[in-house]
Design a protein that fits this description.
There is one protein chain. The protein has helices spanning 29-43, 67-72, 76-95, 111-118, 145-152, 154-162, 170-175, 186-201, 205-215, 222-236, 240-251; strands at residues 5-11, 14-20, 50-55, 99-104, 108-109, 121-125, 130-131, 181-183. It has 252 residues and is α/β, with parallel strands linked by helices. It has one domain (5-201): Alpha-Beta Complex (2-enoyl-CoA Hydratase, Chain A, domain 1). The strands form two sheets. It has a six-stranded mixed beta sheet, with helices on both faces. A hairpin with a 2-residue loop joins strand 1 (5-11) and strand 2. The mean pLDDT is 96.
C-alpha cells in the first residue's frame, strides 16, 4: 500500500480506526481531516462502544506533521488551516462519546505524541520512543501541547519541548503517564488492546460517557484554544528560520 488512508472497521461494538502514510505514518492536511471525520462518525454511531486508534505497520506509530506540506505553506491562512487539522483530531478524540484506546506500536514524533496524549488509554510497545521535535525546526508543540501537558504534567511536557532533539524511551513515557501500559512483544500489545476493547464494549455505555466527561473536565475551551495555537504555528512556519530548518531535516 502506497497511498495515505484512514479507514474504520466496526465489529462487536468496537470501531478500529487505522491510518497510514508511506512516510512513517506522517500526517498531511487531507489525512488529518479524514482522521477527524472517522473519529467523529464512529463516536456518533450508536453501535460503537469503544474506539481503537492505530496506524499500519510495526515501525513508527506517527511521525507527526508532513514536512512536504509544511514547506508548501504560502501564507498564514494556509498555515492556520494545516495546523487546525491537528486541532480537529485532538478535539474529535476529546469530544468522542466513547473511550479512545490508542495502540502505539512504534515511535511517536510531534503530532504523534499528541495523538497518544489525547487518547483516553494508550497501550504501547517498548519500542515506542517519543520526541517533541517542533522547536528543532523553528516551531513549537503549540497545538498538541494542552493534550500532552494534561496527560504528562507541565514538567515532562516542558522537558520534551525544550530538549527537542532527544528521544525519550517508551519506559520514560510510561513512567510519566503518556502510556498506560507497556508491552515487550507485538503479540502481547495486540492481545492487551483487544482484551480492553472487548471488556469496555460490554460495559455500561452511559457510565462510560459520564466518565469521559469527568476525565476531560475543564477542556471545553479547547475548540478556541487549539485554533489559537494553530495560528501560532501557522505564523512561525512561514519564517526563513523554520523553512531552512525543515530543509535541513529533509536532506538528512
Amino acid at each position: 500500500m502506497s497511498r495515505e488512508t484512514a479507514e474504520t472497521h466496526i465489529e462487536n461494538g468496537i470501531a478500529r480506526i487505522t491510518f497510514f502514510h508511506p512516510q512513517s505514518n506522517s500526517l498531511p492536511g487531507e489525512l488529518l481531516r479524514k482522521l477527524a471525520s472517522e473519529i467523529e462518525q464512529a463516536s456518533n454511531n450508536d453501535t460503537v462502544k469503544v474506539i481503537i486508534l492505530q496506524s499500519r505497520g510495526e515501525k513508527a506509530f506517527c511521525a507527526g506533521a508532513s514536512f512536504d506540506e509544511l514547506v508548501s505553506i504560502k501564507n498564514k491562512e494556509e498555515g492556520l488551516q494545516f495546523f487546525s487539522g491537528f486541532a480537529s483530531v485532538i478535539n474529535a478524540m476529546r469530544k468522542a462519546q466513547v473511550f479512545v484506546i490508542a495502540r502505539i506500536q512504534g515511535k511517536c514524533v510531534g503530532g504523534g505524541v499528541g495523538l497518544a496524549a489525547a487518547a483516553d488509554y494508550a497501550i504501547a510497545h517498548e519500542s515506542a520512543s517519543v520526541k517533541l521535535s517542533e522547536l528543532a525546526v523553528g516551531i513549537g508543540p503549540f497545538v498538541v501541547g494542552p493534550a500532552v501537558e494534561r496527560k504528562m504534567g507541565k514538567a515532562a511536557f516542558t522537558a520534551m519541548t525544550i530538549d527537542a532533539s532527544s528521544w525519550r524511551s517508551a519506559e520514560w513515557a510510561y513512567q510519566n503517564g503518556l502510556f498506560a501500559e507497556l508491552h515487550n512483544s507485538f503479540e502481547s500489545l495486540e492481545e492487551a488492546v483487544n482484551k480492553l476493547a472487548f471488556t469496555l464494549a460490554a460495559c455500561n455505555p452511559e457510565a462510560m460517557a459520564m466518565l469521559k466527561k469527568v476525565f476531560w473536565e475543564g477542556t471545553n475551551h479547547w475548540d478556541e484554544l487549539l485554533k489559537e495555537r494553530a495560528g501560532m504555528s501557522g505564523h512561525l512556519v512561514l519564517s526563513d528560520f523554520t523553512r531552512n530548518a525543515i530543509a535541513k531535516f529533509k536532506s538528512k
